[in-house]
């Protein structure tokens, strides 16, 4: 890799030329409008490229990423992205996406000290602590991925409880919040079935999705014991 990163600039030129050849006028049209229907709130992990996973072009997916796909009411960065997406771009779907074997989630689960990010991962540790009895009851090798899924559910619930989403629902705007998890081992997205389109749906949707996650791990436990 060169000091000037010329290889990345060359790759960009190749990508731009290839895109324009495949779809003439693409960049001219993109310059004039940004009308995504989806806001993706995902992990900053380099192995989880949002647009590529769902095969969407630039301009079709609005993206916010941070360590361990956290949505908290004190994070003005995330909230600002959400507000712009909902109020200005009128996105119809907010998708909180975690992924298997997440390093941030692993660090939170195991109390690993890595530096400044430890303070950020306290949010994931709060999820771990809230569900610690169930996490302790499953196989140790499954706990990281289980916490990844629990974290998605909790962060999706947080997204529903933000003033941005609550205000949108109050004025009758269509916004649906989802929780997904991406498998690094197979490249597939899985819907965790927390799908919320109104404030009064949240409690039931969260409990149903949580029960489904726990039931799936219980089935895996029973299957491995047979």
TrEMBL record:
Names of required cofactors: Zn(2+)
Domain of life: Bacteria
Cofactor, how bound (note): Binds 1 zinc ion per subunit.
Keyword set, alphabetical order: Lyase, Metal-binding, Zinc
Record GO terms (molecular function): carbonate dehydratase activity; zinc ion binding
CDD domains referenced in this protein's UniProt entry, alphabetically: beta_CA_cladeA (cd00883)
Keyword presence, Disulfide bond: no
Residue positions binding Zn(2+): 43, 45, 99, 102
UniProt key word Lyase: yes
InterPro entries assigned to the protein according to its UniProt record, in alphabetical order: Carbonic_anhydrase (IPR001765), Carbonic_anhydrase_CS (IPR015892), Carbonic_anhydrase_sf (IPR036874)
An example Gene Ontology biological process: carbon utilization
EC numbers, comma separated: 4.2.1.1
Catalytic activity: hydrogencarbonate + H(+) = CO2 + H2O
Enzyme class: lyase
NCBIfam families recorded: PRK10437.1
Function text: Reversible hydration of carbon dioxide.
Family stated for the protein in its record: Belongs to the beta-class carbonic anhydrase family.
Protein name from the UniProt record: Carbonic anhydrase
High-level lineage: Bacteria, Pseudomonadati, Pseudomonadota, Betaproteobacteria, Burkholderiales
Annotated gene: can
């Amino acid at each position: 890799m060169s000091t000037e990163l010329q290889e990345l600039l060359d790759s960009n030129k190749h990508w731009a030329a290839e895109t324009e050849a495949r779809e003439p006028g693409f960049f001219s049209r993109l310059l004039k409008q940004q009308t995504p229907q989806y806001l993706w709130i995902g992990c900053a992990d380099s192995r989880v490229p949002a647009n590529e996973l769902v095969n969407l072009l630039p301009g079709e997916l609005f993206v916010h990423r941070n360590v361990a796909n956290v949505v908290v009411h004190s994070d003005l960065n995330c909230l600002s992205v959400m507000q712009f997406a909902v109020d200005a771009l009128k996105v119809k779907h907010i998708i909180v996406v975690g992924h298997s074997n997440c390093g941030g989630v692993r660090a939170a689960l195991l109390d690993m000290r890595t530096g400044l990010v430890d303070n950020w991962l306290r949010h994931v540790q709060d999820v771990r602590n809230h569900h610690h009895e169930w996490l302790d009851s499953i196989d140790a090798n499954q706990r990281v991925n289980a916490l990844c899924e629990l974290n998605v559910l909790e962060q999706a619930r947080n997204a529903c409880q933000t003033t941005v989403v609550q205000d949108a629902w109050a004025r009758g705007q269509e916004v649906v919040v989802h929780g997904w998890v991406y498998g690094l081992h197979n490249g597939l997205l899985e819907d965790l079935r927390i799908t919320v389109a109104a404030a009064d749906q949240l409690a039931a949707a969260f409990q149903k999705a949580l029960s489904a996650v726990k039931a799936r791990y219980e089935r895996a436990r029973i299957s491995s014991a047979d």
